[in-house]
Amino acid sequence: MLVFRGKFGGATKILVAGALMGLAAMLGGCETRGGKIPYNVQNFGAPDTPKASDFQTAYHIGASDVLGITVFRVPNLSGDLQVDSEGNILMPLIGTVPVQGKTNLEVAADLTERLGAKYLQSPEIQVVVKASPRQKITIDGAVKSPGVFSLNGTTTLVQSIALAGGTVDDANTRRVVVFRTVDGQRMAAAFDLRDIRRGVNPDPMIYGSDIIVVDSNAWRGRFRDVMSSLPILAIFRPF
Fold first, then answer.
1. From 9, 98, 117, 213, which residue has the greatest number of CB atoms within 10 Å?
2. pLDDT band for position 194 (50/70/90)?
3. How large is the C-alpha radius of gyration of the chain?
4. Which CATH number fits domain 52-131: 3.40.50.20, 3.30.1950.10, 3.20.20.370, 3.40.50.970?
């Protein structure tokens, strides 16, 4: 409640109160939607990825990768294993298995040979990379610790912002932009963190190579610089 003392007349009180209310409205309006990047984009899907057959022959496993190993009909031998710093996994029954630099298919063939030699008859094994620290995202703008972060498993926009320490005090949480390459084009979509946190809108998935920028009044000039530096070919509708 505002209390005025002194020689202010009634009309003056009303003007001062009105000015303060206007200033409060201006400050409260800092967190607003806007800009030319659209919200509620329906087709902002997963980024371009190699075909499964290409990925198996092109991706070479490295330290800290998480491998999903399935030994069909033998659930006790199936599960997720992380590659250690020396490039090995520790597999039940057969012990240490070197996987550094190999593809999914090569690891599956090696495990098939090792298990088939002593323990299983004609084993069927599938190996997939479920997470890799080499899948990275960039988070910039009005966050506490901007930078490049590794993705480990399924990650959403809210979880990504948490990786950067959360938003700063003057962040415009109603305007967070994600840049992504889809169908060979650099695209962008805006999201309202406030609505996501309230459950009004779903929390979108974030993928490797995404760039996330959180807007704010203090960061607005740099936001425009980022916009101009990124080769955006399509933003679901022209600028």
1. 213
2. very high
3. 26
4. 3.30.1950.10
Give the alpha-carbon dihedral of 29, 34, 40, 43, to 10 degrees.
Answer: -160
With H, G, I as helix, E, B as strand and everything else as coil, classify residue 165.
Answer: coil
CA neighbor of 169 nearest in space, from 217, 231, 232: 217
Question: What would the pLDDT profile of 148-180 be if each residue is shown by its tens digit?
Answer: 998 876 789 999 999 999 999 999 999 999 988
Q: What angle do CA 144, 196, 147 make, to 5 degrees?
A: 25
The size of the chain, in residues, is 239
Closest to 158 measured CA to CA, from 104, 111, 206:
206
pLDDT tens across 94-133, in order?
999 999 999 999 999 999 999 999 999 999 999 988 877 7
Q: Tell me the one-letter amino acid at 21.
A: M
